[in-house]
Amino acid sequence: MSWSSDDRTIDANGRCTTPVGNTVDVPDASWTNTIGDSELITVWTDPDFDASPRAFYYVRVLEIPTPRWTAYDAKYFGIDVPAEVEMVHQERAYTSPIWYTP
Length: 102
What we know:
Elements: E1 3-5, E2 8-10, E3 55-57, E4 60-62, E5 66-67, H1 69-77, E6 88-89, E7 92-94, E8 98-100
Antiparallel strand pairs: 1-2, 3-8, 4-7, 5-6
């Protein structure tokens, strides 16, 4: 199975090594929602489906990066933060599993 969107490709092992884009403006503690999709709707078929064993399916989702609370505080208080402080955050989510029992 492979999937592609722009330059992000999921390989046969289900992995994508290219990170999603990043529109975060750290000094302004803002970002634009101009990349990715705002909604995901699809119908998926497992070409290797075997009806005999039990199985489950789920989806992992990545949100585009957004400013972390430290970026908002740095802007609000007008302070410089050390370089090792994370300023960008990327949420991840998992869907509820779909269980299949023969």
